[in-house]
Amino acid sequence: MGRLAAVVDYLLPPACAACGSAAGDEVGACEGPVCANCRLGLRPVPQPACARCGAPLGTGEAPSCLECADWPNELGSVRAAFLLESPARELVHALKYQGWRSVGEFMGTEMARRAGAAVRDAELVVPIPTSERNLRRRGYNQAEVIASALAAEAGIPLRACLERWSQAGTQTALNPMQRRANVSGAFVLAEACGDMVRGRRILLVDDVITTGATILAASRALVPGAPARVSAYAFSRTVPMSL
């Protein structure tokens, strides 16, 4: 079977999930279905960035960050590894809509390699849960795939401590206020996780941060468990509306 697989890979090399070019060497090296050019093309969030939410601050001349000015105290540091632009955008699309589960494993590994202090200091990784409809359609929760790879690479325990109750449709076409309303009360702390969360440093993991509405709702759901701190980390983020 190994020889047959090698022949198939030679005749039909694995393709890059972002650009479609051959990515055989990268897959063979367990670096995920992403070619070398696209890995190099992933653009980190530019500096200066907000110390709390990680949003780019442009010139850095603003007296305060408008993105997290009204965030509640329960949510601390929020970071993303890359900007949501090509090829990161194509990778997110491949994971969420084209069934490329291995892309999520690549994302989580890359995030662990670029993790800052708030991530490395976490005691428990918690993925953002998806809706039952999306779970049936995809066959997996994309955030949990990413979180599993990140947790394994960073040596941090993972537990799906949040449950998703409701969400009125997709977030994609909504403005910031609509996004917050759409996920308000959407998450709840799993009953079996109360003691596990208490007094611990929790890291929420998702694929994309846009306005922070989903992260905010998830962090509020963890509050009854009395965590010591809640941080969040995503593979990519959009450029803030204020820029």
What characteristic shape results from the CA principal axes? Answer: globular
Describe the strand arrangement of the main beta sheet, using strand numbers: 1-6-5-2
* Major β-sheet annotation: 4 strands, parallel
Structural class by secondary-structure content: alpha/beta
Q: Count of DSSP E strands?
A: 6
Radius of gyration: 18 Å
Q: Determine the N-to-C terminus distance.
A: 53 Å
Query: What is the class of the largest domain in the CATH system?
Result: Alpha Beta
Topology as H/E string?
A: HHHEHHHEHHEHEHEHE
The residue ranges in which pLDDT falls below 50 over 5 or more consecutive positions are 4-11
Indicate the percent of residues in helices.
25-40%
Characterization of the model:
The protein has 243 residues and is of the alpha/beta class. The protein folds into 2 domains: 1-41, no CATH class; 45-237, 3-Layer(aba) Sandwich (Rossmann fold), CATH 3.40.50. Helices cover 37% and strands 14% of the residues. The protein is built from 11 helices and 6 strands. It has a 4-stranded parallel beta sheet, sandwiched between helices. Helix 4 packs across helix 5 (101-113) and helix 9 (176-183) packs parallel to helix 11. The longest helix is centred in the middle third of the chain and has 13 residues, at 101-113. It is globular. The N and C termini lie far apart (53 Å). Mean pLDDT is 84; it is low at 4-11.
